[in-house]
Amino acid sequence: MSFQSSTTCRPPNRRMILKNGALLLASAAGNPWSCLGQATEQTAAAPDIRLGLLTDLHYADLAPAGDRHYRESLPKIREAITRFKEAKIDRAVELGDFIDAASTVEGEIKNLTTIEHEFSQLSCPRHYVLGNHCVYTLTKEEFIANSGAQQSFYSFDQSGIHFVVLDACFRSDGKPYGRKNYDWKDANLPRHQLEWLKTDLKKAGCPTIVFVHQRLDSGTPYGIGNAAAVRQILEQSGQVVAVFQGHNHMNDLKTIGKIHYVTLNAMVTGSGPAQNAYSLLDIWKDGTLKLDGFRTHLDRSLKPLG
């Protein structure tokens, strides 16, 4: 697969939205951001790109089960979209489990088109990371056909920054998830995707941010089975700054091999507006990232990795 670049929703210069904290990955001599020119001290200048992030909506027309309030993902995503529009994001990324499992294909497609209608209110490019629930009742082809998704894994560039979307919804034998044919704890990147990733990063030559549903920084049950092999590829490229992931329904942060792994909380968890979860991610060419979390998403402040 080759990446396709999308046009932006707006010019890159705009007002910053400030909040209590930041995800700060400042540039330093020899790090991958140096390909973008000499680093400067962060000021109040507008970021070069702003993304809206959300994950684990698990939308379904179902009564609550435990702490999952499936129907409430509709008003929750509406709040997030309102905030994203106010912030004038360039792109939106949902990090998987957009829907939950329905008993029939027809019911699942109805769930998907219902939540997709809300997400499509954004006029900017939207990106869809496949989660295990996205392809529990549906096949990957059916999910893509009934949403704004285009491919299951790919990359794109904007403002001198490289972005990678990965698909870990494969069994350890290489078979893709679909039609209830998998154990959700058996998540992997197959050989052909690993080879693609190596080639893609080699060609990119710029700082890179990765999006994936299952975790690349932990073991079972929430981690990717061959996460160590994936991390080795990311680290050897010398240009991956951060990985954003969901699946675990919690806020977490780990740093492995000079790469930050940021896990975002689930939108479906908890009832009421205060239990919503979404973020803005601002990126500057000098190597600064700022994660601005809303409701139950946490802000992150990290020192430069050196």
CATH architecture: 4-Layer Sandwich
Task: Give the CA-CA distance, first to last residue.
Answer: 33 Å
Strand content: 15-25%
Instruction: Give the overall form.
Output: globular
Which structural class is indicated by helix and strand composition? alpha/beta
Ranges where pLDDT stays below 50 over 5 or more residues in a row are 1-43
What is the helix fraction of residues, given as a range?
10-25%
Secondary-structure element pattern, one letter each: EHEHEHEEHEHEEEEE
Average pLDDT metric: 87
Q: Name the CATH superfamily assignment.
A: Metallo-dependent phosphatases
Helical segment count: 5
Strand order of the largest sheet: 4-5-6-7-9-8
Instruction: Count all strands and give the number.
Output: 11
As a whole number of angstroms, the C-alpha radius of gyration is 18 Å
Per CATH, what is the topology?
Purple Acid Phosphatase, chain A, domain 2
Q: In this structure, how is the largest beta sheet organized?
A: 6 strands, mixed
- CATH class type: Alpha Beta
Number of separate structural domains:
1
Q: How are the secondary structure elements laid out?
A:
Blueprint: E1 49-54, H1 73-87, E2 91-94, H2 105-119, E3 126-128, H3 140-145, E4 154-158, E5 161-165, H4 191-204, E6 208-211, H5 227-237, E7 240-245, E8 252-256, E9 259-263, E10 277-283, E11 289-295
Parallel strand pairs: 1-2, 2-3, 5-6, 6-7, 7-9
Antiparallel strand pairs: 1-10, 4-5, 8-9, 10-11
